[in-house]
Design a protein that fits this description.
2 strands, 3 helices, mainly alpha, two-stranded antiparallel ribbon
Length: 121
């Protein structure tokens, strides 16, 4: 079967929501998400397939659409981690970034330490 070419996605309107999404959401959850986007702006990404079908982030997509947010697409083959760097936030000094983060200050651990050789007698 021939592989379909990736669609050129220009706006959130180009995306197709997952109609089989198991997460139906709640009114409270939608309200909290909308308020978070209003207060903190966007701080997470969504995942879409080559044709623009949303795999992860249906609720974020809906909230962003309702608020008239723009879409920026980062194309990847999935072999790298895509980091969303917010240049307007500082976790240490910006209350918007740290007020709702109980884990603020926890660092991502480095590679595990190599086991030392057993002691010789």
């Amino acid at each position: 079967m021939a592989r379909r070419k990736a669609r050129n996605l220009k706006s959130l309107d180009d995306l197709v929501l997952d109609t089989k999404n198991a997460n139906l959401g709640t009114d409270r959850g939608r309200s909290l998400l909308a308020a978070s986007l209003e207060t903190h702006d966007v701080g997470r990404s969504i995942l879409v397939d080559r044709l623009g079908r949303v795999i992860a982030g249906n609720k974020v997509t809906l909230a962003a659409l309702a608020q008239g947010r723009r879409l920026r697409v980062v194309r990847t083959h999935g072999r790298e981690v895509v980091a969303v760097q917010r240049v307007d936030l500082d976790l240490v000094t910006d209350p918007r970034a740290s007020e709702s983060r109980p884990s603020a200050g926890i660092r991502v651990p480095g590679p595990p330490a190599r086991a030392s050789a057993p002691a010789r007698c």
